[in-house]
Each structure stands twice: as C-alpha cells, then as structure tokens.
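ping. complex inputs:
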Amino acid sequence: MQKSFEVFAIDRDSKARRGRLTTARGIIDTPAFMPVGTQGSVKGLSPRELRELDAQIVLGNTYHLFVRPGLDVIEYFGGLHRFMNWDGPILTDSGGYQIFSLAKLRKITEDGVEFQNHIDGARAFISPEIAMEIQAALGSDIAMALDECVPYPCEYDYAAQSAEMTTRWAKKCKGWKEENAERPTPINREQAPNAEHRTAEPINYQSSTMNSLLFGIVQGATFEDLRKQSAQAIVDLDFDGYAIGGVSVGEPEEEMMRAVESAEPFLPRDKPRYAMGLGTPPQLLEMIARGMDMFDCVLPTRLARNGTAFTARGTLNLKNAEFALDKRPIEENCTCDVCREFSRGYIRHLIKAEEILGLRLITLHNLHFYLNLMRQARSEIEGGTFDQFRRMFVAEYKPRDAMTVE
Amino acid sequence: MQKSFEVFAIDRDSKARRGRLTTARGIIDTPAFMPVGTQGSVKGLSPRELRELDAQIVLGNTYHLFVRPGLDVIEYFGGLHRFMNWDGPILTDSGGYQIFSLAKLRKITEDGVEFQNHIDGARAFISPEIAMEIQAALGSDIAMALDECVPYPCEYDYAAQSAEMTTRWAKKCKGWKEENAERPTPINREQAPNAEHRTAEPINYQSSTMNSLLFGIVQGATFEDLRKQSAQAIVDLDFDGYAIGGVSVGEPEEEMMRAVESAEPFLPRDKPRYAMGLGTPPQLLEMIARGMDMFDCVLPTRLARNGTAFTARGTLNLKNAEFALDKRPIEENCTCDVCREFSRGYIRHLIKAEEILGLRLITLHNLHFYLNLMRQARSEIEGGTFDQFRRMFVAEYKPRDAMTVE
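pong. complex structure:
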C-alpha cells in the first residue's frame, strides 16, 4: 500500500508537524480539524457550505447512523458519502464512545459490547469485527478500531485491564481488515437524484476496504505508564494512524495534556496522530505543539446552537443584551461570509427570536474559526513561527465557562 | 410620481395578467409570490439563498418586528433591509392582522388598536398613522394601510361597520403619507460589517417615503355587497395598489373565491392586486385567473418544518416510512438545488432525526416550487395558454389535509 502520510515541516520549538494525509477521496492537510457530522449532517449545514468552508474531511458517528437510519438504509443508498452528498473524505468512529456515553444497559465482555440504543431501546451487539463491518458498509475513508473509553475518574486496575482489552480488540480489527482487503465498499458515483444538473466531475473511486485507512486508539486513562504501554502495544500492531482516546472526558486540562505527552513519544513520526473529541482553540494549539495532527470536536457546532461564537479573544454569548445594538460583525477582520454580511445585533435578534438562521450563521462562523485556526497553524509551522504564534494566541484568548464540552 | 405598474399581457380566457411592479429597490414580475420573512428572516434561509431562488421581494411582518427586536433596534441599524442584509424590495404588512390573531386584550376604537403583545405582554397602541410611521422606519418599499381583519364567520352588521372603519383608517394612512412625502427613510448603503469583502455594487437608493408605495386593503368579509362597497371606497382614495384582505381566514374555498370575485371588478386595471395570506398552489392559480397579481403565504415554509414538500401532484409528507428507501428527489425533473443533490430517503432521515438541514432542504424546494409556479404562470400568460395550464395543473394536483393553512 502506498504511503498515505507525509510530514514536510516540523516546528523548531515544539513537536508541531505540518503534514498531509492522502485518502481515496482526497487529501487532508494537517494539522486538520474535522467538523462532526453526527447523524449524516454537520448540524445546521449543507455539504455545499462545508465545501465553501474548505473542510477537507468530516466525521461520521457510527453509533448514531447504526441506530438511525440504520445500516440497511445507508447501504441501500450506496454508502454514507452518497447518502449525505459529501464526496470528500469521511472518518468514522467505531461507535464505542457513544455506546459508552449514550446507550443503556451496556454489557462489556471480551467479545464486544451489548447495549440498548437510546432512541428506541432496541438491543444490539458490537464486536471489533462488527465495528469494522459497519464502517466498511458506511464507506468510511478512515475507520477507527473499537476501543473502550473509560470515564474520568477511573481506578488504575480497571484502566489497565481495559487498555489491554482495547489492544486485543485493535488486533481483531486489524485482522478483520487484512482478511477483508478485497471486500468491495460502496462506490459513490452512481447517479445522484436529477444528476444531469450536477456540475462536479465524476471521480473513479477505488472500491475495496484496501483503500480505506485504519487507525488504532491509545487508551490508559490518566496513568502515565498505562498510556505508554497502550501506545507501544497499539503501535506494535502497525496501523495507518494513531488516535489518543479517553481524553477530554471530564479530567482537568493538565491531566489531558499529560495523557497525550505520555503516549506521544511512542508513536511513530511518519504516521498521523489524532487527539479525539477535543477541544477549545487554545487546547488545539497546545495539542499541535505536542505533536498531534488531527482533531474533531462538537464545540463549534454545539455552542453555536446556544448562541455562542468563537473569536480570537474568546467566546461571545450573542444572547447577551450588550449585543442588541452592536453593528460589528462577530469578529472584526474575519473573512467568513457571516462576518462580511451580518452584524452581532442581527444575529442576537435571530437567536432571541429562535430563528434557525441565527444558529446557522454562528455555526458557519465557528467552523470557519476552527478551520482557519488550523490553516494558520499550518502556515506558522511552515514559516517556523508556530510556537510563538501559539503563545500569543493562548495569551490573548480569554477562557470562559461556555468552553466546557457538555 | 412615475407609473409603478405596467400590465403587458392579459390572458384571453381568464382575468390573468402579466405585469411588472417597479419599486425603489427593484422590479417585481407579476404574478409574484412573496416569501414571508416574519421576524427579519425567511424561516431557515439566508438572504443569499433567497437571491439564488430568484425571489424578487420578501414580506416583513410589522407586528413581529415591532414587538421584537423593537423599532428602536431596527432604526439604529438603518432599517430592515440593512438589518437583515436583503437589498431587494420588502413589502411590510400594517401589523393589523397579527394584532387581531396573536396579541392579547385587544381594544379597537375609531382611533386604532390597543393591545398587549404575545411575547412579554407589554401594552402598545397602533393607529393608522403609527402603522405608517413604523413601516416608514422599517424602510418598507410597499407599505400596507392599517385595516381590521374580521374573523370567519362574521355578522353582517359588524362586517359592514368594520369595513367602513377600515376605509376611514385607509384615508388616514393616505393622509399621513401625503403629509410625510419628504420624510427621510433609512438609506441602506452604509457600510456592512467587514464590507470591504462585499462584491455587490452599491445602489443609490432614494431616501424619502415618496419613493415607497402604499396599498389599500379591501375588506367586507364574505358579503358580496360589502366587498363591492369596500373596493369602491378604497379605490376612491387612490392607492398604488389594492389588496384583498380578510380572505383565507377559515372560510370555505368557494367563499374565498367569491370574496375576490366580488371586489375585483371595482379595482382599476392599471394597479397591482394583492390577495393576502394565501394559499395552496391551485388556489394561487385560481386567484391569478381572477385577476390577482401578488401573493404571500407561510405554507411553503411552515409545512417544510413539518416535513411536508410540495410537488405538482400534491404534497408529500417526507416523515412517512414509505420514503425511507426512496432514492428519487422530492420531485423528478425539478431543477432546484435540493432535487439535484438529495434523495427523499436522506431528507426523511434528517427530518426523523430532527436535523435542521432537513427542514432547510424542504424549505428551499418548497419556495422554489412556489416561485417557479409563478414563473410558469407568467410565461403561460405571455404565451396565451394560462387558462389551459391552470386547468391541467388543478386537475393533476391532489389536495391533502396538510394543505390547510394552520
């Protein structure tokens, strides 16, 4: 298999890397932020808006899609890309995280997890192999191995046993992929509805799981030695990339940084590293400085629905009365379409009046902010000025309560 | 004042007219449908999407905007156009209809209406002159005279007295406009937020109420003689256009048609006629055949939020299980962006999963459907085939329960 990841610049004063990940459906410049498309849609936005934001990849949540509309539906439509009309890369999680955070009556055994979903309570069972089957059926470009994500705080013994089981699960996922390398995955170039009007050029996608990437996940909770052992064991299995899981689950920020620092030295330099499910803008820069390449987080979309917008000075809660007569854009000098066209006062009115356009506009701005932060980080790494940029950004950014991931 | 309305084709077999209304902010080809932007936003859509739909005018609800964000806020932002970033024509209603349908504790006197709004219960008073003041402050391109819209059913005596009062109110509105012809209205070419990025050409708008149009409203409930008397009295006052009010308020469809037929012969042929607050696609064509030129209705946006889409064969409730595995677009051969890119099955999933994109997509399709119906009606009138088109369309269209305006 051809090399899917290149690093072409490393910061002098930190571990920040400028790289590029190649998938069957397109390249991803790293450091990269992946908007979260939980249920086959990045909340509030259309695929066209995601393309206009220059999002290079979106994340799909396997658990949510498995529960609704169900795998049979997505398979019938030829995979997730075609279903949601997004022809760029999609990373799918394994479903594990949501089983542990949303589903009811979970029962974890060596074989996998049995659970009742949170929508209609139907029972289901997911094993490492089934998680791979599901992600292949979705047509994932980057699949994640099934892991157990332990809560914070977590007893040492449980964390140790869990991380070992996660390694055994990872091995099964790797095994499934090797056995199913020739298995066809959805081809997404079937005609779209009323397709004669489409302007996009058809692309000849490869159509076997061989062409999707598989990432392993490092666990180990907040224990330095467990993080190290987990990283070494997962790396021994040789994945296309490595994720740090079990972070941003309620632990203090220092613990989160330490968990990443504990694992990172054992990850190979020539593979992408993905810090899962985080975080605030300063946290992303701190993670980049610690050698992380990829991120996903619901903050920009979730906080938008609550009226909260990101700026380089911190967040603004646009519901506040102070913005009622504010003619300025969300962020001055921001180049996003929203800041070109709409005032804080108007957006505040929309949010107060519960008009959907309000959360759409803030979502667009917030994702632009996150994606632009990654663009700037890449440029600063290339220019050798990343660490200075990070320090200045973090110093300017005022943390607020709203920044906690709910 | 220059002539604002031209009729350049009349159907041979009906009263349908092909015309063009010129306002300070642009032309409106008639028959025209006006999307409803109740609270400074056409629900779910951005101004850019409205432009891409080729909407030539939107409607703003004076009552809603008066209550929230309040007139002071919109004045501070330089008028409604600038506030919502829509530089095309806006028709504002007088606020009367919502005072009668939404507000609490209404007290109607010869001078006007005292009411408590439905949001925070604050008391306010609107007279014919105040309704004009408010619409001028909003920067309306087409203002409506204040009227009393009586409910259905309505006693003859009440309807008669009410229609006479509506005429006296209309006279006061006309008088206010004549006295305030030189009054400045908002100029909307102040710099937009981060305006250096805007690509639109600046336009030199006229800036006095002289350049806005004022329409009178015919009332008279379901009584033929009252409709005639009201039409004659309102026409005597000489407005820029004439609306038929008090229709689509719960009366049977035949009564609605008769109300319009009773008033229409007394309306001048060289002025636009606006049938307020309706209707279904067949009703619009029937109204066009009866000489009506302009329409507004919440159906395409409101039903979209409920998962209901319009097609030439009738409505589809996309929540229904039958659409789960339907790869077709909402309407085959529809040229809207939604039908080019998304399947019924995907949109059904979004609606079931309560994803905002679902109602956005149906709203876009529904407004395209309404606007396109008007485009086709205009073309058929020009080609001399309107009446045949109307008959065929009405015969093909299956009415459903969902079609009732709530």
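Confidence is low (pLDDT under 50) at residues 195-206, 401-406 of chain B.
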